[in-house]
Amino acid sequence: MAALTVGLLLFAFACRTEPGLPGCDGLGDPIAREECRYDAVKPLVNDDQALRAAVDSMSDEASRDLLLYRLAVDNPQRAQSLCALTRTPVLREKCDKVIGRPHLAGPPRPSP
Questions:
Q1: N or C: which end of the chain has fewer CB within 10 A?
Q2: Which domain holds residue 84?
Q3: Tally of structural domains, the chain
Q4: C-beta separation of 101 from 76 below 8 A
């Protein structure tokens, strides 16, 4: 019986998720895990409160900042507010480059 209890506890620990990012932490492949997190947060990009709650729930700071950077690249009109949430110096610098390129926020120009 004790082995069953320990097994269930280990299973529950292995399947834990971060609040706001259901199922992502249980993925063993780091690329799949990051994609899962991005897909979970992407719909929240225009909801500041929900986005902040989701990214604040992430315990891995590098993963959190990578997520914010990717959102900033994909949503240059929101880059300034997204980059303001980053904490790691490398991604803050990369984010600042996105902010410095406001022309990315407009519609794509037609090819000549």
A1: C
A2: 2-102
A3: 1
A4: yes
**pTM of the complete model:** 0.69
pLDDT band at 98 (very low <50, low <70, confident <90, very high): confident
**d(C-alpha 64, C-alpha 89), whole Å:** 13
Residue 112 inside a domain? The answer is: no
| Neighbour tally for 75: CB within 10 Å | 17
19 touches 57 (CB < 8 A): yes
Distance of CA 69 to the CA centre of its chain: 8
In a domain, 107, yes or no: no
For 18, list phi and psi in degrees, rounded to 5. -85, 140
